[in-house]
Amino acid sequence: MNTSIKIIGICGSLRNGSNTSIVVKSVLAAAEKAGAEVQFIDLRDYELVFCDGRNQEDYPDDVKRLRREVKSAHGVILGTPEYHGSYSGVLKNALDLMGFEELEGKMIGLVAVSAGALGGNDAFNSLRNVGRSLHAWVVPDQVSIPYVDSVISKDGEIADENVRNRLENLGHQVARFSYLHCSSKSKAFIKAWEEAPQNPGADYSS
Fold it and tell me: Which residue of 3, 19, 200, 206 is 20 to 30 Å from 41, comparing CA positions?
C-alpha cells in the first residue's frame, strides 16, 4: 500500500486474556501484513464513564483519548463476545461515547465469539445497524466463532486453520477497502457524487 492506512481493533471484553482479544489481535496482524499501521485498543485501559448525554467537552480525558484514537483510523475492527443475543455492554457504551466525527466513512470489520453453538450472528446484526446509523461502511466479511474454547488453545493460539484463514481474510479486506476508500480516484468519485444534482434526468420545470 502506498497510502498510509491505520486500522484499530477494539476488544469488547474486559476479561483478562479474553478470547475476544486474541481474535481481534489476529485480524489486526493480518491487516498489518497487508501494509496497514495497526493499534489494539483494550477498553480495560480506559476509564470510561457511562454515556449520559452531557456536553462532549465535559467527559473525562480517557473518553477524549478513545475518540481521538478512533478518529485517527481509516478502519476499525470491532470484536465482541455474544451476550444474551447481542454484543457486550462495554462495547455498546464505548460506541455510545462516539459518533459521526469518529466513525463516519470508516471501514468496519466484525468478529464475535461465543461459548455455544450460535456464534455471534445476533451481535453482528446489532453492530451492522450501529455502523449504518453512523454512516460507516461495514465490510461484507465477518467472522463468527462458535464453541470458541475448542478453537483457541490454552496457550492462546488459534488452533482451527479455517478460522485462522477467515480472520486473515477479514483483516486483509478491511485494510484493502480502507486503502481504496482513501485513494485519490475514490475521493474524486465521492466528490463528483456529492456535487451531482439529486436527479440529473428530472425536469423540474413541469
Answer: 3
Domains in the chain: boundaries:
6-195
pLDDT score of 184: 64
| Torsion from C-alpha of 151, 157, 161, 164, nearest 10 degrees | 100
Local mean pLDDT, 10-residue blocks, the chain (206 residues): 84 95 98 97 95 87 96 97 95 96 96 93 96 96 95 92 97 94 67 64 49
Question: Quick one: three-class SS letters along the chain?
Answer: CCCCCEEEEEECCCCCCCHHHHHHHHHHHHHHHCCCEEEEEEHHHCCCCCCCCCCHHHCCHHHHHHHHHHHCCCEEEEEEECECCECCHHHHHHHHCCCHHHHCCCEEEEEEECCCCCCCHHHHHHHHHHHHHCCCEEEEEEEEECCHHHHECCCCCECCHHHHHHHHHHHHHHHHHHHHHHCHHHHHHHHHHHHCCCCCCCCCCC
The pLDDT of residue 122 = 94
Q: How many residues does the chain have?
A: 206
